[in-house]
Amino acid sequence: MKDAQVLTPMVADAKPARTPLPPWLKKRLHADVSLSFVRDLLDELRLTTVCQNARCPNIGECFARHTATFMILGKVCSRACGFCAVNRGQPHPPDPDEPARVAEATRRLGLRHVVVTSVTRDDLPDGGSDHFRRTILALRELPNLIIEALTPDFRGHEAHISALVSAGPTIYNHNVETVPRLYPRVRPQADYRRSLALLAFVKETAPAMFTKSGLMVGLGERADEVHEVMRDLRAARCDILTIGQYLRPSPQHLPVERFVPPAEFDEFKQVALGYGFKAVASGPFVRSSYNAEAVFVDSGRRNA
Questions:
Q1: Confidence label for 142 from pLDDT (cuts 50, 70 and 90)
Q2: 245: DSSP letter
Q3: Are 121 and 72 within 8 A, CB to CB?
């Protein structure tokens, strides 16, 4: 099978790729036999992870703990967000055997909390929601497993969102990514209000289901705009929030406008908890699925 056509977006105001990192963004690399084990397992089962395709800085740490966020529906996204390292272009049709392979990898890794995400598939009539649904149903065959679905917006189609919710993930995660003012530059094919409406619809459809969202900072947003996003998410009854530093994947992606100090991440966390989130992960290396199990456990403590 030939590779899907891949397109790389160009960012007009791109700055030099090598911006010196502040001390708090330097991380020790993991050299562990577990890294090879996870990579070999993914290769064997022909699976991919967002850890690899989005060039996540936490990949070594997570693989060393036998943790991975599975990325279904291929490696090529139908959208072209200015921050994302995943390839853009014309994707292949969904692989019907992929849900079973995700479940097998989860079993062999001994996961207690599994995160499943996907590229955006605007090329598919249902946006890939049925493939997502079948993956969750395959995972539900495994005992005592927390299932977190990190989904695209499905263009706001409630029928597609409902199909996924009907499969019964423990957590429905959909990221707003940034503040509304920056959407035309950061997420030109997405819509802030549509993302909020998705989270609100999930909560209306399944009140007991946890909802979760995340955003990046360092793209030029102001603190008051971040606070506004927090209030909007709580108005949509979002339970869990993640906030992390945007890191530029390549010279073709949006530049980092500012490296946010750890103290400001701590302030964001306290503000968010004050707004009523059940759990908040806020820090330079935080990503939507990073330490997802610990964040979920924390939400249970606050809900007790």
A1: very high
A2: E
A3: no
Query: What are the pLDDT digits (tens) for 102-138?
Result: 999 999 988 888 999 998 899 999 999 999 999 999 9
Which element (helix H / strand E) includes 89?
strand 87-90
pLDDT by residue (tens digit) across 143-155?
999 999 999 999 9
Percent of the chain with pLDDT over 70: 79
Residue 292: what pLDDT? 67
Residue 295 burial (C-beta neighbours within 10 Å; 0-12, 13-18, 19+): buried
Packing angle, helices 192-205 and 223-235, rounded to 10: 30
CA neighbor of 245 nearest in space, from 22, 41, 12: 22
The residues that bridge with 242 in the sheet, in sequence order, are 214, 281
d(CA 256, CA 259): 7
pLDDT of residue 287 exceeding 60, the answer is yes
* Beta carbons within 10 angstroms of residue 304's beta carbon: 5
211: helix, strand or coil? strand
Which domains are assigned to the chain?
A: 32-303 (3.20.20.70)
